[in-house]
């Protein structure tokens, strides 16, 4: 059985150190931040601090903003309207920027990198990162593992 090379993780309800521990334990080589806005009120999850934290563990960091959910999709997700979020995100994924960044992500996975998609929501079924992972899997035959850091 081959090692999975595509992971996802959400940092909701987890500390920065718990997320970093989970990434390191899984052997992740590259953390791909798929948030439209790589900022967070949560300690350790803004772009600069997150990139520094993963670098300390020997993990690369890449922010693919074009694979993030537009503002109206994030609002729908916050209000529990997951079907609306998914519809908005699907339309967004048809844009040239999103397609270009999806191609970049697929290239990294095809190259054999152990990639993990990061967003906020703890459960992948409520997050657009599941949609992104499924789009990757349509083009690259690779299993997906959804990581969960220990909760606070």
From TrEMBL:
<dbReference type="InterPro" id="IPR007438">
    <property type="entry name" value="DUF488"/>
</dbReference>
<protein>
    <recommendedName>
        <fullName>DUF488 domain-containing protein</fullName>
    </recommendedName>
</protein>
<dbReference type="InterPro" id="IPR014519">
    <property type="entry name" value="UCP024492"/>
</dbReference>
<dbReference type="Pfam" id="PF04343">
    <property type="entry name" value="DUF488"/>
</dbReference>
